[in-house]
Amino acid sequence: MIDLHGRNINKLRISLTEVCNMACTYCVSSLSDHQRLPDELKAEQMLSLVRMLKEHAGIEKVRLTGGEPLLYPNLIPIVSGIREMGIKSIGMTTNGQLLARKAKALVDAGLKNVNLSLDSLDPVNFKRMGRVGKLHKTLEGIEACLKYGLSVKVNMVVIKGENDDEIVKMLEYGVAHGVEVRYLELMGMGPLHNNDEDLLVSMEEMLERISTKYDVQPVSAEADSTSQRYWVPGGYFGIIPNNSAPFCSTCSRLRLTSNGQLIGCLSNPEAISVRHLLEHDDPADALQKLVKKSVSYKQDVAFTGSSLVMSRVGG
Ligand code: SAM
């Protein structure tokens, strides 16, 4: 679907479940904030909505996230179901705690790429920032993905005074393992809504830290990519500059919550339910109207912060 600003909205990000097995301090106030919604969609319902969005709203690429997608009971049938409807680009964003033993089955089902959230390479700091979870499990998850041929990126949310001293160390880990590290500027969402300024590390600061040790050269990225890409000797890294250089004008994403609501924009918590369309024999017109409305909530200039919790919208 092409919106009024000429953006081709063809990527769908699905929060399969709001449950998570970590409770990152910048995402939620406590682990109990992650609750499975009582009306969470079953796999076949979720697949029906994805099929509708593919057939009637131009969705071509899907990313599975959450909450923690690996906690969704029918993750493998979801991946194979999406592949069987002809969607070739299927990715997942995960904390990787449960990934090592599921990586092979996910590849066989059709998963193509994984974004692993990894905020620290120090076990104590990892636990402090995530409250729950173990560093070695995420690292084993990354190794399993590489072993089975998945394309892997590491996402690190950089926070002043918490992990900004690990920026270079994370880059060196990425280069050594052949995975692209992407540094995320912190977003003022959920518990950080209107409360993130002192914690923010800007793209400029990140580049400065890396440039003191390595030669850094900008390279091109896909037109609708959220990240700015750079070359360093031995590899590449990216920065997702949510605040310093907003990418709203090229945003091609639509979000679907675990209970079947569309969210068009991270800055706008307005959700539009489409689950009732599961009962329609011919949902095309109604779906297109609702997608259009959801997309109309998109900002065209900059992310403005939101009370939305990331696990609802999947990051
Ligand atoms: N549980 C999975 C994971 O940890 O990757 C998927 C869900 S998580 C909400 C998706 C992404 O959102 C993660 O990479 C996480 O770091 C990012 N995220 C959450 N809150 C954020 C914030 N306030 N600013 C920037 N990124 C955030």
Question: In words, what does this structure look like?
Answer:
29% of the residues lie in helices and 20% in strands. It is α/β, with parallel strands linked by helices and 315 residues long. The protein has a single domain (11-313), classed as TIM Barrel (Alpha-Beta Barrel), CATH 3.20.20. Strands 7-8-9-6-5-4-3-2-1-10-11-12 form a twelve-stranded mixed β-sheet. Helix 2 (75-84) packs parallel to helix 3. The chain is globular and about 60 Å long. The two termini are 21 Å apart. Bound molecules: S-adenosylmethionine. S-adenosylmethionine (SAM) is lined by residues 20, 26-27, 65-66, 68, 93-95, 117, 155, 157, 184, 186-187, 189, 192, 310-311, 314-315.
